[in-house]
Amino acid sequence: QVQPVESGGGLVEAGGSLRLSCTFSRRTVSAYPMGWFRQAPGKEREFIAGIVLSGTNTYYADSVKGRFAISKDNAKNTVYLQMNGLKPEDTAVYYCNIVMGRQPAFDSWGQGTQVTVSS
User: Fold this and answer.
1) Which pLDDT tens digit goes with each residue over 77-92?
2) DSSP annotation of 4
3) 21: helix, coil or strand?
4) 3-state SS string over 41-60?
């Protein structure tokens, strides 16, 4: 099973933006529906965004709808998460995975990328 490599996190002020990337070493993004998840300290990992295999439809958790956008580039084998209007409650480690609806398809995760939003 191929693990993704997430990147693009960092420290940003409230209201700012970040763009996260998730890249696989083998063809994965063009073969499966993909999603982003996050885990805040002391909380369970939660689904936040998904994109269907064709890339034509996306869906989001209510907490990020209208602020975050998921996209993918099959040629680069990469999934992106554009995050705008960041809030302190968005602070978490962000992960990507193959999805089945709003659930991860595999219980195997990359190292994630830390996003910290200051107030």
Assistant:
1) 999 999 999 999 999 9
2) P
3) strand
4) CCCCCEEEEEECCCCCCEEE
